[in-house]
Amino acid sequence: MAQKKYYVVWKGIKTGVFTSWIACKKNIEGVPGAQYKSFANKEMAEKAFKGTYEEYKGTSTKKKELSAEEKKAYGKPILNSIAVDAACSGNPGLMEYRGVATSTATQLFIQGPYKSGTNNVGEFLALVHGLAWLQTKKQPLLPIYSDSRIAISWVRQRKCKTKLLQNQDTKVLFEMVRRAEKWLKENTYKNPVLKWETKAWGEIPADFGRK
Question: Coil, strand or helix: which one is 50?
Answer without folding.
Answer: helix
